[in-house]
Amino acid sequence: MRRRTRVLSLCALFVLLSAMEVRAADQEIAGVRVTVASVITGEGGATLRRVVISAVVLKLDQLGLEVAESALDQPGSPEMPESVMTRAKSREDDFVLFARLAPTENDVSIDLRLYLVPSGQEVARARSVEALELTLDRAVGDLTVQLLDEARSFLVAAASQRSGAESTRAGEAASAETGQAVTLPEGPPAAPSRDRILAFAGGFAPLVPVEASADYMGLSMGATASLMLLPFSSDTFGFGVMGRFVTGRARGAAADLDLVLIPIAGVVQVAATGSPVRPFARVAGGIALLRASNDSLGDRLGIIPYAAADLGVTATLLGVFGLEAAVGFEAYFEGSILIMGFAPALSVVLEI
User: Fold this and answer.
1) Does residue 34 lie in a domain region?
2) pLDDT at residue number 20
3) What region, left, alpha or beta, does residue 140 occupy, with left being phi > 0 and alpha being psi -120 to 50 degrees?
4) What are residue 76's phi and psi, to 5 degrees?
5) 290 forms bridges with which residues in the sheet?
6) What is the 3-state secondary structure (H, E, C) of 17-70?
7) Of 145, 176, 207, which marks where a domain is finished?
8) Side-chain half-sphere of 199: how many Cα atoms within 13 Å?
9) Comparing 29-43, 215-229, 267-281, which segment has the lowest mean pLDDT?
């Protein structure tokens, strides 16, 4: 514990020395107003918090951002206390930068998040685990730059909006009396939060038979639904279950048949991350309920093997909601008869 205290004290000294360095401001984001807040979970200390927050504030100041630091050191407090956002709104700040610190004896987990004011939308996140060494302040500065780079489009838009508003107020006093509110452009939609671990999708997915299947089946109407579990923070890999409902008509030599196919399958997914529009690939395998019927032969029910593969994209539109477009190929194995075809799908997605 004493070694940790000595290390943190030296880190604090290095932060003060770093503050004397002259750095060129980033003109594209200079002037953006940021509230900095923090919370320590578990065992922590004022010195550690001071080192980390001082390093964050120093890096923001070097880049030309205006900082209003809000002290928040309440173990167990929520990640976005209402009081922090309220104070940021009252100061007309553009963003809240929140640092969650979880120290151990030899290192500290640092989770930086950037929120848009006044909506509270999370626009960037950067995390790392750093050793309690003399280079801690520099590591925190680098992590802060990583956070700002991820939210750069939002920062540039805020700086431009603030610069334009201040120029208007300074140069045209009459326009400042109109009472029109200055609104911050939302910019591109943010990528889905990595805390979401479930994704539900449901929509329209017809079956377009190909090869021999097209000789006795036409376009069949269908619907699809899936529930995916995303167990890892990167959201790259996921697995879950899916179901479909397909209804169509098969042309026979003597009579036509009404067909209903209801597959249920396990799904494995690989997807890209880090963007509001994310391509994915999926494979699925399971069983399908087959129902065939006509007026003369009655109903026939059976369970048959089923397999499918999909390529598509998911686009986040409104927070937890999005759209998913995919083109799949699926096959139903009914004895010597193979029913197969393309299955284009358009679905609504809910991520929680």
Assistant:
1) yes
2) 43
3) alpha
4) 90, 0
5) 261, 302
6) HHCCCCCCCCCCCCCCEEEEEEEECCCCCHHHHHHHHHHHHHHHHHCCCEEEEC
7) 176
8) 29
9) 29-43
279 in the same domain as 165: no
The confidence score (pLDDT) of residue 248 equals 87
Give dist(CA 350, CA 337) in Å, integer: 37
Q: Is 188 part of any domain?
A: no
Encoding tokens for residue 65?
């951002």
Q: pLDDT (tens digit, 9 = 90+) per residue, 109-158?
A: 999 999 988 888 889 999 999 888 878 888 898 999 999 999 999 999 88
Query: Same domain for 235 and 329?
Result: yes
Dist CA 268 CA 240 (whole Å):
7
The domain that holds 246 is classified in CATH as 2.40.160.20
* pLDDT, tens only, 231-255: 765 568 888 999 999 998 887 655 5
Judgement on whether residues 157 and 101 belong to the same structural domain of the protein = yes
Q: What is the pTM of this model?
A: 0.46
Q: What is the pLDDT of residues 199-236, one digit of tens each?
A: 899 999 999 999 888 887 888 999 999 998 877 655 68
Alpha carbon distance 324, 285 (integer Å): 20
- Domain that includes residue 246, residue range: 198-351
- pLDDT of residue 193 exceeding 70: no
Question: Is there a single domain that holds both residue 25 and residue 77?
Answer: yes
**162 in the same domain as 209:** no
